[in-house]
Amino acid sequence: QQQVKQSPQSLIVQKGGIPIINCAYENTAFDYFPWYQQFPGKGPALLIAIRPDVSEKKEGRFTISFNKSAKQFSLHIMDSQPGDSATYFCAAKGTGSARQLTFGSGTQLTVLP
Amino acid sequence: KAGVTQTPRYLIKTRGQQVTLSCSPISGHRSVSWYQQTPGQGLQFLFEYFSETQRNKGNFPGRFSGRQFSNSRSEMNVSTLELGDSALYLCASRGQTSTDTQYFGPGTRLTVL
After folding, report:
1. How high is the mean pLDDT of chain B?
2. Which positions in chain B touch A99 (Cβ < 8 Å)?
3. What DSSP string describes B53-110?
4. Shortest CB distance from A43 goes to which of B55, B101, B105?
């Protein structure tokens, strides 16, 4: 019940394309859903996050869509650039004493020039 | 503010040895969490410390332990190293005001031979 399932495992798009990464969760007690970007040799960096009372959030070229009833959320990257090539992780945070992040398995994104 | 720092960045040990990794959180942050990242298992939660107390623990054997000091710096220790402990160990800190957002350090790459 603590799992977060992420797809696809890898994604290749052309520059300017809109890659979409999807995540699904089961635990309805999750109350915070961040996306992290990780470059090789670096730690994950927070991109954008959303709470379940909001259906969409935009920050720059990054948009999270959230469907509470379906227990799914997704990341859209508008006008993708080669510099966006990285691994993206979705995550979900528990409540109470279980406030750790549960991560998806990651999506390796390649944006071709 | 300086980000989360971790030392050392790289470490090579042999089976049976023990290792201590260090993490300094962002100034003012009192919560420190540790995660293990491997290609096979992804990002997995190890434990969280807050004000020198372990608040939560993931599903790892007792060989993995940690502690936090009064200045919020944290260490994790792995005893009797096994080949499978080779991983990137990530530390994340969380602040007082935005208590949901975790900021990650660059990680310590541990290789067990």
Report:
1. 93
2. 48, 55-56, 100
3. EEEEE-S--TTEEEEE-TTS-EEEEE-S--GGG-EEEEEEEE-SSSTT-EEE---EEE
4. B105
Question: Which residues in chain B are closer than 8 Å to A45, comparing Cβ atoms?
Answer: 104
Dihedral Cα B20, B24, B29, B33, nearest 10 deg: -30
Specify the pLDDT at position B108.
Answer: 97
Q: Which two tokens stand for residue A81?
A: 């650039």
Q: What is the average pLDDT across A67-94? A: 96
Contact list, B35 vs chain A (CB under 8 Å): 101
Q: Which residue has 């201590």 as its token pair?
A: B20
Judged by CB atoms closer than 8 Å, whether chains meet at B102 and A101 is answered as: yes
pLDDT per residue as tens digits for the range B30-68: 999 999 999 988 999 999 999 899 988 999 999 999 999
Q: CB distance from A99 to chain B under 8 Å?
A: yes
CA dihedral A58, A63, A68, A72 (to 10 degrees): -170
Structure tokens at B100: 């949901």
Nearest to B110 by CA among B38, B11, B23, B21: B11
Average confidence score pLDDT of chain A: 93
The position carrying tokens 């970007």 is A37
Of all residues in chain B, the one with the smallest CA distance to A44 is B104
Q: What are phi and psi of B39, to 5 degrees?
A: -60, -35
B70, B103, B26, A53: CA torsion to nearest 10: -80
CA distance A9 to chain B (A): 12
